[in-house]
Amino acid sequence: MKKLSKIVMSVLLVCTLAACSSKQSEVKATVINNSGNSENMTSTEIIKSYSKKKYEGAKVTVTGTIQELGTSEVVLEEGFVIDATGKENSISTFKEGVSVKVQGYITKVDSKEKQVYLGSTEEHSVIITRLS
Fold this sequence. Notes:
Layout: H1 2-20, H2 22-26, E1 29-32, E2 38-41, H3 43-49, H4 52-55, E3 59-69, E4 73-76, E5 80-83, H5 88-91, E6 99-110, E7 115-119, E8 127-130
């Protein structure tokens, strides 16, 4: 009986983890790669196909839900982390669970944490727009 309970608990844990990461694999961002081509990709797809030559500094537009809000960093449930340095006043009114549209540029990809980092370039700032 204990063995069956452990198996059931393990299956439930795996299912829960899969459900938590489902948004990350569903929401497609529009990526203008460094060749100028537009691609619709999830954060997972960006991570899997990432090459600095093709994607570093590439423009990304994504709609997502705030999972975690720091003083200068916004983490979206969809696997994107936004460097909001200089935007502290504008994001101070945001809360976890709020839907936002973000336009930023790929600064880093962390395959271990399964996150794509978006930030500003010398010419362009990150734009974060509250949707709800």
